[in-house]
């Protein structure tokens, strides 16, 4: 039997060069459905956001689109198809992913395992941070916060050592726990990963999209979950499945930037994605157009459903630019301080 803390166990299960889950050729789309896979309207909304970032930047000579956790390049491909030629000629797309470069990706796209530095444009991370491995802690019967260890082949858990000073401080600041059985997912590695990603932007907008939570809404027993073949399964870190946990979206935010937390429902509505049905009269005058509009409405409804994809959290952080025009309508922009 192999017992490990959750962070190294998930690191090996997902990213090990010899058989890690995210090294598999089928990619994430083979096991779970993201907004990118649900509808081309998601890529269309990201393309609109990119155009607004371009305008806020004053249409620079080179405009970057950095897709962090790019999967098999689906979002990059979708956004590129939506851009006007003039913008496409100035665009430098980056796919940031540990897996190999996918076949069929545009030759203009750079494929890399590291977030580029010194770029100007839009950095977009869709369902990336939930797969940054983290440790889990649980309060024991004596009130001591200890790491949770997991047996990698079965998912069985046991209490481990008391947590480090750094993780105890993180929990006290972001996810306080005190009662026996209370659990915390230590988000320090995700905070650091997001800070490194945002630091790659010289100017632009950074967006993190994920299932998440904020202070006052922490789940008392954690959020660890597994996904395999399109369904939720036990989070066993044996390399056979995805293992994920929701993101503490307020903790990851880089201080001193103009920032907003909102839902995907509100963000996509601001970017022109809705789920309203087309007028029935269109069925008589343009049946084919009505069916296309009806299909689009269904896709929009799925993307903005508050009980599903629309419930994702969006963290948006503006780096040395004004807030893009469509997002000005969203309430809650603030400048965070350390």
What's the short story on this structure?
Helices cover 30% and strands 25% of the residues. The protein is an alpha/beta fold.
Annotate the secondary structure layout.
Layout: E1 3-5, H1 6-15, H2 35-38, H3 40-56, E2 63-68, H4 74-82, H5 85-90, E3 91-96, E4 110-112, E5 119-126, E6 136-139, E7 145-151, E8 157-162, H6 165-174, E9 183-185, H7 188-199, E10 201-210, E11 212-213, E12 225-228, E13 231-233, E14 242-244, E15 247-248, H8 249-252, E16 258-263, H9 264-270, H10 282-285, H11 287-304, E17 313-319, E18 334-335
Parallel strand pairs: 2-3, 2-5, 3-4, 5-10, 11-15
Antiparallel strand pairs: 1-7, 6-7, 6-9, 7-8, 10-17, 12-13, 12-14, 16-17, 16-18
Helix pairs in contact: 3-4
Give an overview in words.
The chain has helices at about 5-15, 35-40, 40-55, 75-80, 85-90, 165-175, 190-200, 250, 265-270, 280-285, 285-305; strands spanning about 5, 65-70, 90-95, 110, 120-125, 135-140, 145-150, 155-160, 185, 200-210, 210-215, 225-230, 230-235, 240-245, 245-250, 260-265, 315-320, 335. The protein is an alpha/beta fold and about 350 residues long. α3 (about 40-55) packs across α4 (about 75-80). The termini are far apart.
Which descriptors apply to this entry?
eight-stranded mixed β-sheet, alpha/beta, 338 residues, 11 helices
Largest sheet strand order: 4-3-2-5-10-17-16-18
What low-confidence regions span 5 or more consecutive residues with pLDDT below 50?
Answer: none
Residue fraction in strands: 25-35%
Biggest β-sheet description: 8 strands, mixed
Order of helices and strands: EHHHEHHEEEEEEHEHEEEEEEHEHHHEE
The computed structural class is: alpha/beta
Number of strands: 18
Distance between the termini: 43 Å
Number of helices: 11
Q: How confident overall, as mean pLDDT?
A: 90
Q: Report Rg.
A: 21 Å
Q: What is the helical fraction, as a range of percent?
A: 25-40%
The coarse overall form would be: globular
